Amino acid sequence: MLENQKFRPASVIGPLGEVLTLETLPPADTSRWVVRRKAEVVAAVAGGLLTVDEACERYSLSFEEFTSWQRAVDRVGMPGLRVTRVQHYRSIFDN
Questions:
Q1: Domain spanning 33-93 has what CATH number?
Q2: What is the torsional sign of CA 11, 13, 18, 23?
């Protein structure tokens, strides 16, 4: 989403086909980031529900952490968000 874009959708379609709204996104105090929650935040930003800055502020994420989630989803989908597979996928794509 463009940072200066005025229109913001009320909902977007999540990674599992469910409707996501600001109210149904993971809570701001989430500390246990499972694959589904990460994918929901990435989908919310991709769909314009949140900006990258808003997502990072809301969830206390660094810009680098959020963009690593985006890259993982872009490259291999939701399985790329599994912490146990990060090094495996990194070795595939960094070559």
A1: 1.10.10.10
A2: negative
